[in-house]
Specification:
alpha/beta; Rossmann fold; 10 helices; three-stranded parallel sheet; 11% strand; four-stranded parallel sheet
Length: 235
């Protein structure tokens, strides 16, 4: 039997895309209509944002940990979080977590290595781009990285938090992200990480100047692989 995946959710759109990916793509590994058991817990996004605005990462970690304990009681075997930004709080969570986690930036960085990329552009919220969640994981694998300019970080963050997490997708915002990615290409990037789990809703391989590292779907696929491989080992 495949392992039970627990989703520690933050924003609805990113979590929903991750959940759908697990359920839909599970069939390729387990048979028609099949996927591992999945449970998800989502506190109010407003609670997360209040802590983020205060740069209070221990408090962010407490919200994640509360979800982790609830998912453990629901029978989950391991956890994923389809939100890049709040991974900065994971060091506050792991020592007290009842279950192991997959790390979204580790998954994306490893995929970049496997694809042979060398210089990665980082997109996401201002909190994500300003912190070291991706830079540390990319550098640990010998990869270079490029961040957007301060003005670009502010506007990308505005689009994410005012539009994408609210299910608003406008042509103007697509164009803005395309321009940011095109400038990263001009700076020598050979791929871009979509480091907010909502960005894949407007940016993809078909409209990006660079190959994309879709953190949402990569995390979902890594969770599927872990769940199914553990099933095979137990057989």
């Amino acid at each position: 039997m495949a392992l039970h995946i627990g989703i520690v959710a933050c924003s609805a759109e990113g979590a929903a895309l991750c959940y759908r990916t697990i359920c839909v793509e599970g069939a390729a590994l387990l048979g028609p209509h099949a996927h591992p058991e999945v449970s998800m817990h989502t506190p109010s996004l407003a609670d997360y944002v209040a802590h983020l605005d205060r740069n209070d990462w221990p408090a962010v970690g407490e919200l994640m940990l509360a979800s982790a304990h609830k998912l453990a009681r629901m029978g989950a075997d391991f956890l994923i979080c389809p939100d890049n930004t709040i991974h900065q709080a994971l060091p506050h969570v792991l020592p007290r977590s009842p279950l192991p986690w997959l790390h979204i930036a580790e998954v994306a960085a490893q995929h970049a290595v496997e694809r042979g990329y060398r210089r990665i552009g980082i997109t996401g919220t201002k909190w994500l781009v300003d912190n070291e969640v991706y830079s540390e994981n990319l550098s640990a694998r010998g990869l270079q990285h490029v961040r957007p300019s301060p003005a670009e970080r502010d506007e990308c963050s505005r689009i994410i938090m005012d539009e994408l997490v609210c299910s608003q997708f406008t042509p103007q915002s697509v164009v803005y992200f395309q321009q940011v990615i095109a400038r990263m290409k001009d700076q020598g990037c050979d791929a871009v990480v979509l480091g907010c789990t909502e960005i894949p809703l407007i940016i993809n391989e078909g409209n990006s100047a660079l190959p994309t590292l879709d953190s949402t779907r990569l995390l979902a696929r890594a969770a599927l692989k872990r769940a199914v491989e553990s099933r095979a080992k137990a057989a």
